Amino acid sequence: MPLRLPERIAMCVVAAAFSALNLLDKLLCTVPQPADVSRGEYVNRYGCWSDVVSLWNQRDLGAHVFPYVFGTYRGDPPVLGGGTVEYPTLTGVWVWFTALFAHSAASFLVVTGVVAALLAVVVTLALARIAGRRAWVFAATPPLALYAAYNWDLLPVACTVAGLLVMTAAPRSWPPLVRWAVTGFAFGVGGAFKLYPLMFLAALVLAAFLDRDLDLPGRLRRSLIALGTGVGAVLVANVPFMVVNFEGWLSVFQFQAGRPIGASTLSVWYYGLLPWSADLDGPFQDTMSMLATVSTGLGILVVLGVTVVIGVRTGRTPWIQSSAAMLCVYMVCNKVDSPQYVLWLLPFFVVLRLGGWWIAAYLVTDVALTTGFFRNGYYAAIGQTGDTWASQMMTAGIWVRAALLVVFVVVFLRTPVVRRPLADRTTTGRRRADVSVDAAPAR
User: Fold this and answer.
1) How many other CB atoms are there within 10 angstroms of residue 35's CB atom?
2) Burial (CB count within 10 angstroms: exposed 0-12, middle 13-18, buried 19+), residue 119
3) How high is the mean pLDDT of the chain?
4) CA-derived radius of gyration, the chain
5) Distance between CA atoms of 237 and 318, rounded to whole angstroms?
6) Cβ contact 285:261 at 8 Å
7) What's the pLDDT band for 425 if we cut at 50, 70, 90?
8) Cα–Cα distance measured from residue 130 to residue 419, given in angstroms and rounded to the nearest whole number
9) What is the mean pLDDT of residues 280-307?
10) Which residues does residue 232 pair with via DSSP β-bridges, in sequence order?
11) For the chain, first and last CA: distance in Å?
């Protein structure tokens, strides 16, 4: 059944309300704690930590220095300076722009939270267009209430969903090459906000070339168009900064490469390799970073290899399924698996016909992990050492989440794409030959 207007409105209201709840929680960290309470105790008691507030203070965003142009990464240990934040260029420029409307950490958080709520509404509407009522999975589940204003992750999420929308539900009047071009551009822009959507661009280009609905020249043309618009977006967002101040542009990658794998990263590498990983300044950090990088790269290549095999064998490349599987590899193998990364995964829970029990298992695990993490920090801040229920919940959450992500790599590759509601379809039920959305699942 198609979605009626009142239900769409209700979805948007819920998504905005959940985002507002997260903003209200994070605002607690913008006020001083009571005199007899430490900062760590206060922040962890209310779980109000936000990268938005932290970076306002740590990166001196109130000075409104345009990022990267004057950026540096110097000192012993080196720190970011010159207005630069530890994210790709479009996120840095976005942070600078929104900070222009703020005069304090609290006002900056409010601006960021309002934008996050608007993005949540836009993403909800796009997902409703693609998958109907399944968009409730994005709008009305805990992640928005927990992480909407935690960081700026809804920006690349919106780009990802824009690409999915264009390829699965664009107006029929759009020429096929335009859809491929716009989708590639959307993933490229997403990669300029945060790098992970570039994996989706790789899967899209494979689909453009491998799908046997056109002759070879036609397939080559559309793959080059998709790749060109995606790479072009990345270049436009990066090359000017590289030319003006290469050191400032490179500082982001230097910072991320030198970031230690600690307890706050919630990485399987840290918790799986204790006690060696506990030394944040020791040589074992280099070993863990190498393991994380190599395993992530190999995992992504394996998924792409399976995608090629399916595309060659069936003539229909499961690029959406492949994108979701690569994202799972990245999340479980990378050196950092921050709590808000669940926002990256939610759109794929919507557009792929994943069973409700799988979705519930992951979301419950995520809530348990976040709860355990902050409560464990609270107990540590008040001096309560030893094994607590919070540390047990956090540890269990880390490993259950990792296990689910590994399983999802296989499950996603076998899961079909959701068909759009009948009233929103642009064809009479027949598969459109120029768009690879209904690829057969792997056998």
Assistant:
1) 5
2) buried
3) 92
4) 22
5) 29
6) yes
7) low
8) 8
9) 95
10) none
11) 29
Tokens for 122?
A: 């836009």
| Count helices and strands in the chain by DSSP H and E runs | 18, 2
Backbone angles phi, psi at 271, to 5 degrees: -75, -20
Q: What number is the average pLDDT over the span 159-168?
A: 96
Identify the three-state secondary structure at position 280: coil
Angle between helices 154-169 and 176-193 (to 10 degrees): 170
Query: Six-digit token pair at 300?
Result: 């992504």
Tokens 């929103």 sit on residue? 424
The residue count for the chain? 443
In the numeric block, the tokens 């709008």 are attached to 139
272: number of CA atoms within 13 Å, CB side?
14
SS3 2: coil
> Binning pLDDT at 50, 70 and 90, where does residue 81 land?
confident
DSSP string, 64-106: -PPTTTT-EEEETTEEEETT--SS-HHHHHHHHHHHTT-SSHH
Q: Two tokens at 34?
A: 């009571």
Using a cut of 0.70, tell me whether the model's pTM lies above it.
Answer: yes
Q: Residues with Cβ < 8 Å from 407, sequence gap 6 or more?
A: none
The answer to whether 70 touches 245, Cβ cutoff 8 Å, is yes
Helix axes 105-131, 154-169, angle to 10 degrees: 20
**pLDDT tier at 440, thresholds 50, 70, 90:** very low
